Amino acid sequence: MHTFEIRDKFYLDGEPFTILSGAIHPVRVHPSDWRHSLYNLKAMGFNTVEAYFTWNTIEPEPGVFDFTGFNDIAAFIDEAAELGLWFIARPSPYICGEWEWGGLPAWLMRDRTMRPRSRDPKFLEHVARYYDQLMPILVERQITHGGNIIMMQIENEYGSYCEDKDYLRAIHDLMVERGVDVPLCTSDGPWRGCLRAGTLIDDDILATGNFGSRSAENLAALKAFHEEHGKNWPLMCMEFWDGWFNRWGENVIRRDADDLVACVRECLEIGDGLNLYMFHGGTNFGFMNACSARHTHDIHQVTSYDYDAPLNEEGNPTEKWYKLRDMVRELYPDAWTAEPLVKQAVAIEDIPATGRVSLFNVLDALSEPVRSQYPQTMEDLGQSYGYTLYTTTIERDVAEDAEERIRVIDGRDRAKVYVEGACVATQYQEHIGEDIKCVLPAERNRLDILMENMGRVGYGHKLLADTQHKGIRTGVCADLHFITGWEQRCLPLTDISGIDFSAGFEEGQPAFHRFEFTLDEPADTFIDTTGFGKGCAFVNGVNVGRFWEVGPIMTLFVPHGFTHAGVNELVLFETEGVYESTISLRSEPLINLLDKEGVE
């Protein structure tokens, strides 16, 4: 049986050991591609893989657990072990990771008396139930049990959020009580303020730092903090940022490969290990992208999590991969390296639409109506992700050709407002609440408001802000009074198989657009959404993510695991009434360079 220890250095089987790790999140890479990505990590000369686990996908509803498919943690860890990779597990209830609400399940919001990510006993009770299911999978795979997990992390970057040591100790105790006995660590920004607030260094828990440049400076700060507390510990960067994530309406962020390699080299020459964040970023499939908190206008992140990492979104090596492998060969000549695995994506031009239907004509196939006096939030309706449609009837109180005033009071994130099926306003974030002036065509008029949850904040001070409750949070006013008598439709779009594409299509309304394409065998591809406005796409019934004409990334990656030989179905749900009669599949991503900051 192997051993792993933390003393003045890391020791594997009693010998000094440099951790060369790369981050791969199983939930962002199709399970059929796990081995491809893990092999490429090993072939680059690295010896360890690091991964978060996402509570919100594992426990989508209270007490309902799913460890299959993307959540098959056991299979992912075992795949790494078969390739000879050690494993760093970060099973924090909160992960950040640019993941929807930092991985916290949205159903936690239904209890407004509870404070998530704190010592609140009600929150810790939920974490305990989650750990009852999660930890047995990890415990039996620890190096102390003959497995490949060498270290686990307590919470994540807590020093960038709060300084409640009792909460951190509670998470620690929940892990240890369930059998975790490998060395534990925390990870935070490497400056004293973050380290002081977020670590358990006085409890002999290794403090690591997160950074992506100025390695000497940041490791010196980490070492000084260790020494301040009387520790002679190894220096490790738990998240060495080799790229960055992207947001709607901004240019794609790139990092020079030579600059990255120079900074990684400096880190390894001074420190004792690092974890590249990310090695393979992958994709925020479905509605799992997060949002960056800002003072007024939060900025939502895109579907692609390419991250400009050593492996691109598809999992193929980039220039960074080859240059990092060259560096490993130079610094660690005994490390095993090899040529990478490379996949080929397919392209198909001008696929004609086979059907389209307006959302308002297929509501019964997608949801059951919920009636209430006032509109309810998405969470109070029992929904976590996607869209919510609010419908009522309003009377005309002014002259036939005069404008009426409507206001959506306090809602998130984006509202599409329709009167008698015609769109009269689109409002996003801070514009929600402004007057909507429109002429009501009849004495009594149907009012529909389609609210989109574009992703919750994943990091920072707004994590528990009321803005993270989605949908309409207060009400809707006509003139000066609140409108009552609402029907609500939850539209998480988890099952679109019942849609009847012959039910009728109306221009300008949100609609489903259907296409078919044929493959000789399962294959990777990229959906080119150019010419379509905003929405999400489904391949053979699976939500592969959001698109938006503001860019910068105009394609959606489809892994071969979502396709099959023969006829495949592609459906776009589009909310702006902007569409094309054909759609194309590309063999590589399409980037639209922008000259603006932020989305209007």
Provide tags for this entry.
about 600 residues, alpha+beta, TIM Barrel, Jelly Rolls, 3 domains, 10 helices, disordered C terminus, GH, hydrolase, glycosidase
Task: Explain the layout of strands and helices.
Layout: E1 4-6, E2 10-12, E3 15-16, E4 19-24, H1 34-43, E5 48-52, H2 55-58, H3 73-82, E6 86-90, H4 121-139, E7 149-153, H5 165-177, E8 184-188, H6 192-198, E9 206-211, H7 215-228, E10 236-241, H8 257-270, E11 273-280, E12 291-292, E13 299-300, H9 319-331, E14 348-358, H10 363-366, E15 369-372, E16 387-395, E17 403-412, E18 414-419, E19 422-428, E20 436-439, E21 444-452, E22 471-478, E23 481-482, E24 486-491, E25 511-519, E26 525-528, E27 534-539, E28 542-548, E29 555-558, E30 566-574, E31 582-586
Parallel strand pairs: 4-5, 4-11, 5-6, 6-7, 7-8, 8-9, 9-10, 10-11
Antiparallel strand pairs: 1-2, 2-3, 12-13, 14-25, 14-31, 15-24, 16-21, 16-24, 17-20, 17-22, 18-19, 18-21, 22-23, 25-30, 26-29, 26-31, 27-28, 27-30
Helix pairs in contact: 4-5, 8-9
Give an overview of the whole structure.
With 600 residues, this protein is an alpha+beta fold. The chain folds into 3 domains: 18-331, Glycosidases (TIM Barrel), CATH 3.20.20; 348-355 and 499-586, Galactose-binding domain-like (Jelly Rolls, Sandwich), CATH 2.60.120; 363-491, Jelly Rolls, CATH 2.60.120. It contains 10 helices and 31 strands. It has an 8-stranded parallel barrel, surrounded by 5 helices. It has an 8-stranded antiparallel β-sheet with strand order 28-27-30-25-14-31-26-29, with no helix packed on it. Helix 4 runs parallel beside helix 5 (165-177) and helix 8 (257-270) packs parallel to helix 9 (319-331).
